[in-house]
Amino acid sequence: MLDKSNNNPGYVLGWFFAKLDAIQKEAAGEGFAQSDLTAASSSPGTTFPRLIESVKETVTSAGNPALQTELARLTADILGRLPQRAIPDYITLQDQFRFMVGMSHGKA
After folding, report:
1. pTM of the complete model
2. What is the 3-state secondary structure (H, E, C) of the chain?
């Protein structure tokens, strides 16, 4: 069950990853690779901007305005939950665990 009151960066980014993956799957029929998960959970600052741009391009190509709106809303919501409204370059090992929990909750 998603805990929207949990603003831990690891948890929030895991939740974001799950939602981006779902949007990607809906727009293109397939989600992210395992390597994307590994990179996003350990180096989110370099990985998430690439994932966000990739999903934006996929959604735009799919011509689905509802998904475009959902992606913009989701991105603004997530950034608003992070300290200084920025994706951290790295997260601690404990937060990597929280990333996996947030991802699991985001898929539920």
Report:
1. 0.94
2. CCCCCCCCHHHHHHHHHHHHHHHHHHHHCCCCCHHHHHHHHHCHHHHHHHHHHHHHHHHHHHCCHHHHHHHHHHHHHHHHHCHHHCCCCCCCHHHHHHHHHHHHHHHC
